[in-house]
Amino acid sequence: MENLAFIFTRHITEKHHNDLWKLCVINIRKVYKEVPIIIIDDNSNEELVDDFNNKEFMRNVSIIKSEFKGAGELLPYYYFHKNKYAKKAIIIHDSMFVKKKFDEDLINNLEDFRFLWYFATHRNVDDNERNNDNILFYSLLNNSEELYDYYNSYDWLGCFGCSTIINLNFLETIQEKYNIFNIITYVNTKRKREILERLLSVVFTYEIRNKYESRKNLVLFGCIHDYPNAFYYFYHHYKYSPLDLPVVKCWFGR
Predict the structure, then answer these.
(1) 101 within 8 A of 120, measured Cβ to Cβ
(2) How does pLDDT run across 103-141, given as a tens digit for each residue?
(3) Three-class SS string for the chain?
(4) Are 159 and 113 in contact (CB under 8 A)?
(5) CA separation for the pair 23, 95 (Å, rounded)
(6) What are the b/e assignments for 228-244, b being 16+ CB within 10 Å?
(7) Backbone angles phi and psi of 94, in degrees to 5
(8) Which residues is 253 bridged to in the sheet?
């Protein structure tokens, strides 16, 4: 089994969305020449998807068409669990561009996970519909009462975009204990993916709640709200003024 794989989701509804996933692959390949890259296609418009026939960059790249429309950030975890691509996976977005290698000692010794960025605004229930979906999602999990209590405790750390480095064994433990993929058919809108983002944060941090003195030891790049021009650093900014960071995140609003 490979030691490491990259996994990300793409969703192409406009022609220029192809620029993102291709650039994501190119940047990974510049840093990691041979590491497997798995692209999960989340029901893109097939008429708009461009093939990328560059043998150098597309070497050891697999594209999986998901059967779960709109499940977004849950899909890399589901297919990592299902297909076991490597011992560890770096799970990112197609709008995140890897510029430097991750710490090899960290990856080799990782027993659980690391968030790429965190957020500290915990709750995201601003209306009855979202609140009902939130309660439904937790009810579908094993050990749901203790997880929901932990969610309401504000003692957890948010994982921005569900982007992590994660050990497959840890993910298997999470699935066995909490059955997180039981919600996959219910995650089908942006609002529900926001609930998912918090739910996965709760499950992950709950599982290791007694292991680390500080939750921030679980994070590589700090708070997403401290990112330069966070939420307003768009793709055209990247093209004309790329940031010098280990991983560059662009916001694209899909």
Answers:
(1) no
(2) 999 999 999 999 999 998 665 555 666 788 899 999 999
(3) CEEEEEEEEECCCCHHHHHHHHHHHHHHHHHCCCCCEEEEECCCCHHHCCCCCCCCCCCCEEEEECCCCCCHHHHHHHHHHHHCCEEEEEEEECCEEECCCCCHHHHHHCCCEEECCEECCCCCCCCHHHHHHHHHHHHCCCCHHHHHHHHHHCCCCEEHHHCEEEEHHHHHHHHHHHCHHHHHHHCCCHHHHHHHHHHHHHHHHHHCCCCCCCHHHHECCCEHHHCCCCCCCEHHHHHHCCCCCCEEECECCC
(4) no
(5) 8
(6) eeeeebebebbeeeebe
(7) -70, -10
(8) none
In DSSP terms, 62 is beta-bridged to: 38
Q: What amino acid is encoded at 8 in this protein? A: F
The architecture that CATH gives domain 2-249 is: Alpha-Beta Complex (3.90)
Structure-token match 């433990």, residue found? 173
Asked whether the whole model's pTM tops 0.85, one would answer yes
Place of tokens 């041979």: 34
Q: Which tokens in the block code for residue 74?
A: 């849950």
